[in-house]
Amino acid sequence: MKVLVAMMKHETNTFSPLVTDLARFEAWGLHFGPAAERAYADTAMPMGAYIRLCRARGAEVITPVAAEAMPGGIVTRGAYETLAGAIVEAARQGVDAMLLDLHGAMVAEHVADGEGELLRRLRAVAPHVPIAVTCDLHCNLTTAMVENCDALIGYKTYPHVDMAEMGERIARVLFDAIDGKCRPVMAFSPIPVLAQTLRMGTDDAPMKDVVGEARRLEGQGLLAATVFGGFPMADVAHAGMAAVVVADGDPAGARAAVDHLVDFARERRDDFLYGHEPIETALERAALLGRDGGPVILLDHADNCGSGGTQDVMGVVAAVIDKGLGDVAVGAVYDPEAVARMAAAGVGSTITLDLGGRIAMPALGLEGRPLTVTGRVKVLTDGRFIVRGPMYTGVTVEMGPTAVLSIDEGRVEIVITSRHHEPWDRGVFTSVGIDPAAKRYLLLKSRIHYRAGFAPLAKATITLDGEGVTTSDNSKLTYDRLARPIYPFDRIN
Asked: Which residues make Cβ contacts (< 8 Å) with residue 100, sequence separation at least 6?
């Protein structure tokens, strides 16, 4: 038995100025052929789960490509065709089943629904080969995605600590179907709610309740049930929440379950909106909370590269420095030029830098504004570490040449990287000699994923509403293609 196992993942922020070309995939994770299997076989990723199940079954594993890029702007035509083409060509050569590790929010220059188009092409070259798919919780689900596979599931956790679990679940559904033990049928429906990412954490209501309802339905016999939070930073027709279920030979039951999940989520639509407050107010609270120690987590969530942010917006960092908060570690600012200057100066040198603020954000009408800082070059590293926490476990992270700038005798320590990386694992700090548990404040350019590595340390968490293309303020964004009506732009019943 030959099983095609492949990964093609990107969360596309159509408001982001960052170019997602093949080089951006290479910077995070791009492997072809047997190298793809070697890279992910021992990881807690859906692809890792697929490979382990195939090996246990004695199946031959065909891995044309494993590709993931840090979220950013629209994927270039060349990058999309290279990756999708590798998968389609492998399917054309003849396989008995396909297990795909996708995201669900990929937008390319010529294709608005990256995953739906890939699956459509696969169905065209291998119409009778069963296909199972795992998607991210932030998938913007489409009809094309559902109609061109046999079983589809999404993560039920954010942070995504159940990636391997969901991959294994849907792979088992597919193998059971091949063995005649079940007959998967799917139903899906969009939910006309553009939820905000800060309200999708699955440890909190409303997402905790919605996911709990999906799990309850699975406990009653569904093969899989998913409610996607969707990815709101995409100006595409299909952005928004959605529900999909896989039932065993019961189309009517699948439809009834989906309708129930849609109603369950719609009733909680107000809770999917984030409430803002002035940074000054939030920092006053932070100062009080940090008096007796920390770490207090400060989230610069509007500049989260894990959702396509430039990671070089300096407004929140400047506000924290100006507030006079002490014993702060910042993770991380993207500025390859600053790292190069620090490397040339050498460890121990005092240097003045125009830090960050190099990337304009036309979608927001914002030019880059660097922050002039003076500090000591404390550490220089290659930026490489292996994730030991519960999310992306076993994956090697390449932050590129990385430096730590110590300001005011260590009052603020800023990790500066040459590649984009969201701080969801403590390795962002420990790899450069900073103990995050010992800090009073951790300023993280993250939204929810930080919880995977840092929630156990946190005395408290405060969101700081700065600028950036991952803003939760809908009034700053222009949606021209979004299907309407959709809440909160429109009234829905």
From this structure: 5, 6, 7, 8, 87, 118, 119, 131, 132, 133, 134, 149
Q: CA–CA separation, 470 vs 472, rounded Å?
A: 7
Q: How far apart are CA 226 and CA 219, in angstroms?
A: 13
CB–CB of 307/449 below 8 Å?
no
How many helices (H) and strands (E) the chain has is answered by: 14, 20
* Nearest one of 417, 371, 362, 361 to 70, comparing CA atoms: 417
CA distances from 440 to 340, 445, 457, 460 (A): 29, 17, 11, 11
The predicted-structure confidence for 68-119, as pLDDT tens digits, reads as follows 999 999 999 999 999 999 999 999 999 999 999 999 999 999 999 999 999 9
Supply the pTM of this predicted model.
Answer: 0.96
DSSP of 59-113, one letter per residue? PEEE--EEEE--SBSPBPHHHHHHHHHHHHHHHHT--SEEEEEE-S---BSS-S-
What are 467's two structure tokens? Answer: 């600028």
Q: How far apart are alpha carbons 301 and 464 in whole angstroms?
A: 7
DSSP 210-242: HHHHHHHHHHTT-SEEEEE---TT--STT-SEE
User: What six digits make up the tokens of 417?
Assistant: 């990287």
Helix residue ranges per DSSP H, 143-206: 143-147, 163-178
The answer to whether 436 and 429 have CB atoms below 8 angstroms apart is yes
Q: How far is CA 1 from the centre of its chain?
A: 33
